[in-house]
Amino acid sequence: MTRPIVATGLAAALMALASAAVASPAQPGPSGPEGHHPRFNFAAIDADGDGRLTPDEVKAFREARFREKDTNADGKLSREELIAAMMKGASARIERRVERMLGHRDRDTDGYISLDEALAGPGVDRMFKRLDANGDGVLTEDEIAAGRPRKGHGPGPKPAN
Asked: Domain coordinates of the chain in residue numbers?
């Protein structure tokens, strides 16, 4: 009986730790698909490299991330310090996204996306094919709302309450 409780407790602790690691500025190591949301970086936390995490290693990791964010070293994270830390992570993600966008759209590889390159491809046709429910060649607000993906729920209208 204690084994499932211990396993559940360990899983919960690791999830909490993963949340703290993800909330930190991006750390070197593996990242998720397309560079989104860093995965739990076990190696960064496992200070002695023995393949096991101790409470001291977890605390040391969290303290180091805290100190990185505490730029004025007053032992507290201000609103500005939290914003700066989050912007640092966001900036890296945006940079990766721009590189992917240039890779897909910049057909002549000049480092710019021209209007012709921006309009190239099946984007508009694909959008109308997917959203134009009655096939009349125009989109209404209702058709767009019905086809707009809802976070975590896929396309479709919001359920009635």
From this structure: 17-95, 121-155
